[in-house]
Write a sequence for this structure.
């Protein structure tokens, strides 16, 4: 042994390759003559560093030789060097065979193997990766032979870790295992350039070893490293999916699915330590969902392909996320409060929004309280939403995510927001946010309002109206947030039953609160209160009477705004006012005026036309205005682009009515449409919607119309009109929330009436705080000195006036729902106390 050790010690860089190989081979063969622990200490620990040094020297020489691959001498030296590497790899393989024959082994007996064998493989892989293509071609045969033995060597290494080791419960052994696992999880990226299948085998080995020793290493292994590396591997695999390659795609999808399963397995194994790597898990979900949105946006992927990815991969991750949020919610709650600020998510905004949508879906069905985190989740969605517009406007899964966001955000707020703070976040983004975010906030707010009690919805509306009443907002304000605010209060008002609409009318009488009704408008005004509109008609008529030769700008604005407000009344004829005819007379005089190209550029004319366009359409439909009086003026106005939108609006109103049954009116309307479309080379969405309606009712007429247009415009219309679909304005806000034991939109005999659902912790008598502050930030020049008046002193809400039979039916539905929930959830002590109280109250009633 002393002689062998001396021989090993004499080996250095000056020794020839042949001598070095013979000496190493003799040293490895001598291992059989001693105990494994002695062999490790006196032979392997000395030989393996020498092999590493020889690998390094040879690969450095070859990197120099490969510059002159045309030189026969250099080629011969390179081949000789590669042969030496091959022989050394075979010698190491022989030692691995010896270890397997004497397994299981203590880690301390194979410390050098754990340290150096991955290095041998990494150096070979780096040599291949850094070599020129010409070098790889010339020495292809030698490299292929070397890589074949390296594959066997790596397989032996994995087998050793999986089945041939014994780990002692001492610090040294645990540290050796942790170091080996840290190296192992980095090997897929290293060795995959030589053997793509090593990705699967490496992670399989890692999962097996960590499963066997998870309790032993849970406090020492930095699980963040494998999570980050798996994130890179999974995202790279998802990015490289090629659905056009029928041969490789199934295998790619199989590898992707397997890697996701590995991630799930590792996470479950180390779930008690989740707080240490929760941030990395969230980053994984963000990046994965971001790449998934790219896959959904890629037209190369057929619908069946993306559905397969969703079924095989996404379902696994949704299950993992749900389990983590339910069982380890504490690890995520604090993290989510500031996650968007501590991570760089700018390039992964779509993934982050998708993740938050899934989190909302999960926490909506959880019994634990997330009200302290929910406002930040909602806030983060709106912060990153503007970067996702291009994705969310697409057809398919990305576009569906927008609808999904509305439903899940509304559901989460209804079930989890006990402080009602989220409504303030929504209102802030309706008033101040990006346009795309504002529309989403508007839809969510309206969905929530649709599913709370009418009294609570009234409470929200009245607080908004008190704030609007004190806004200092000019007539010519065209800021988008004002339009969103108008839409919000109009939707809230339309949700209310007529009895509560009348309460709003009593609080805000139209003639005393004009500004409020400029936002609310009269489209949903209760029929019983129609008499209250007569003063508005009289005020408008008086404004028209005040027109003199000395017309001022204020007079024009008063008339224009008053007529615009009155035009929101569904049927002006229902108002029993003798002065209503004055308004119609004013319209007749207006359209009797001479309008030529010169006057069309007048801004006052433009303003007035915009304001009277809606009531003009109503009067034509009702027969109060003759088309022959109005249409010639339209023909002149359409020569100016400023008038095309209001003219087309009037035409659209006519198309939706029955008045186009008159052939002459249909002919004149068609002529106006042709003139409007000829005035520009693009087609707006509003025009497509109008033409789609026209196509449905007068297809032959439309075909003739298209033939007369510019071929490019006609082709665009023809290509898009059949596929154009109009979305109902309240499609989302009309959905009604039901208990979690039922599904959305499923018919059921015991369907809980949505409007009877109460949002826990909120009183309909308490005004929503901070609304004035929100409006103040959204509008310039607003001043608020007094706090918002509480409507609790103004309104006395009656108790529910439904019959006993209806109330009992609702109770039966709730009991059935409770029984379903009771099969899967354990009732708490408070639940039992509440049930006893209800039983006592019912007994007293009987």
């Amino acid at each position: 042994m002393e002689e062998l050790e001396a021989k090993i010690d004499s080996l250095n860089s000056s020794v020839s390759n042949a001598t070095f190989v013979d000496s190493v081979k003799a040293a490895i063969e001598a291992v059989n003559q001693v105990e494994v622990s002695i062999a490790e200490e006196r032979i392997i620990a000395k030989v393996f560093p020498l092999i590493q040094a020889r690998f390094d020297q040879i690969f450095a020489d070859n990197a120099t030789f490969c510059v002159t691959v045309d030189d026969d001498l250099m080629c011969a030296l390179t081949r000789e060097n590669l042969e030496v590497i091959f022989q050394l790899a075979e010698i190491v393989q022989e030692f691995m065979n010896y270890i397997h024959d004497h397994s299981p082994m203590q880690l301390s007996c194979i410390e050098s193997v754990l340290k150096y064998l991955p290095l041998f493989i990494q150096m070979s892989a780096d040599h291949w990766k850094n070599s020129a293509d010409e070098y790889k071609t010339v020495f292809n045969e030698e490299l292929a032979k070397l890589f074949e033995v390296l594959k066997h060597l790596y397989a032996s290494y994995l087998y050793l870790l999986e089945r041939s080791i014994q780990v002692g419960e001492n610090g040294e052994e645990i540290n050796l295992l942790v170091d080996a696992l840290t190296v192992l999880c980095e090997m897929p990226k290293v060795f995959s350039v030589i053997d793509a299948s090593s990705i699967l085998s490496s992670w399989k080995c890692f999962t097996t070893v960590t499963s066997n020793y998870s309790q032993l290493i849970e406090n020492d292994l930095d699980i963040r490293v494998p999570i980050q590396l798996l994130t890179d591997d999974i995202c790279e695999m998802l990015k490289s999916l090629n659905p056009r390659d029928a041969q490789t795609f199934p295998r790619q999808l199989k590898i992707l699915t397997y890697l996701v399963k590995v991630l799930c397995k590792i996470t479950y194994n180390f779930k008690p330590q989740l707080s240490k790597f929760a941030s990395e898990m969230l980053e994984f979900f963000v990046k994965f969902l971001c790449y998934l949105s790219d896959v959904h946006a890629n037209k190369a992927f057929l619908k069946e392909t993306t559905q397969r990815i969703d079924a095989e991969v996404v379902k696994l991750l949704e299950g993992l996320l749900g389990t983590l949020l339910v069982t380890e919610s504490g690890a995520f709650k604090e993290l989510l409060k500031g996650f968007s600020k501590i991570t760089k998510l700018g390039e992964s905004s779509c993934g982050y929004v998708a993740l938050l949508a899934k989190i909302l879906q999960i926490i909506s069905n959880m019994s634990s309280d997330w009200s302290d985190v929910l406002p930040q989740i909602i806030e983060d969605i709106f912060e990153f939403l503007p970067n996702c517009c291009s994705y969310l406007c697409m057809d398919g899964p990305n576009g569906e995510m927008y609808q999904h966001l509305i439903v899940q955000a509304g559901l989460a707020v209804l079930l989890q927001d006990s402080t009602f703070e989220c409504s303030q976040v929504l209102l802030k983004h309706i008033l101040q946010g990006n346009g795309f975010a504002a529309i989403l906030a508007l839809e969510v707010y309206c969905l929530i309002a649709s599913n709370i009690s009418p009294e609570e919805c009234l409470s929200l509306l009245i607080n908004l109206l008190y704030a609007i009443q004190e806004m200092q907002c000019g007539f010519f304000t065209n800021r988008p947030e004002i339009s969103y605010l108008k839409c919000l209060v109009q939707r809230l008002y339309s949700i209310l039953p007529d009895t509560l609409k009348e309460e709003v009318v009593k609080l805000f009488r139209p003639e005393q609160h004009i500004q409020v009704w400029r936002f609310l408008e009269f489209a949903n005004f209760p029929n019983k209160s129609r008499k209250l509109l007569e003063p508005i008609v009289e005020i408008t008529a008086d404004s028209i009477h005040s027109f003199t030769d000395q017309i001022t700008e204020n007079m024009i604005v008063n008339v224009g705004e008053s007529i615009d407000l009155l035009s929101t009344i569904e049927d002006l004829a229902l108002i029993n006012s003798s002065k209503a005819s004055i308004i119609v007379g004013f319209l007749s005089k207006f359209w009797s005026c001479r309008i030529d190209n010169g006057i069309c550029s007048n801004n006052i004319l433009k303003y007035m036309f915009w304001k009277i366009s809606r009531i003009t359409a109503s009067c034509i439909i009702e027969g109060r205005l003759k088309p022959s009086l109005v249409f010639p003026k339209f023909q002149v106005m359409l020569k100016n682009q400023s008038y095309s939108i209001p003219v087309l609006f009037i035409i659209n109103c006519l198309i939706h009515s029955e008045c186009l049954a008159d052939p002459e009116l249909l002919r004149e309307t068609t002529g106006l449409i042709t003139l409007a479309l000829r005035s520009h080379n693009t087609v707006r969405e509003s025009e497509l919607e109008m033409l789609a309606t026209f196509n449905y009712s007068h297809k032959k007429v439309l075909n003739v119309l298209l033939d007369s247009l510019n071929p490019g415009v006609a082709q665009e219309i023809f290509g898009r009109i059949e596929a154009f679909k109009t979305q109902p304005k309240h499609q989302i806000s009309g959905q009604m929330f039901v208990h979690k034991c039922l599904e959305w939109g499923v018919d059921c005999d015991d369907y809980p009436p949505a409007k009877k659902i109460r949002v826990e912790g909120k009183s309909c008598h308490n005004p929503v705080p901070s609304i004035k502050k929100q409006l103040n930030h959204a509008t310039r020049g607003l001043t608020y000195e007094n706090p918002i008046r509480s409507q609790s002193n103004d309104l006395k809400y009656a108790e529910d006036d439904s019959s006993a039979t209806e109330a009992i039916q609702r109770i039966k539905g709730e009991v059935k729902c409770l029984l379903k929930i009771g099969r899967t959830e354990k009732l708490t002590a408070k639940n039992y106390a509440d049930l006893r109280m209800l039983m006592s109250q019912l007994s007293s009633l009987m």
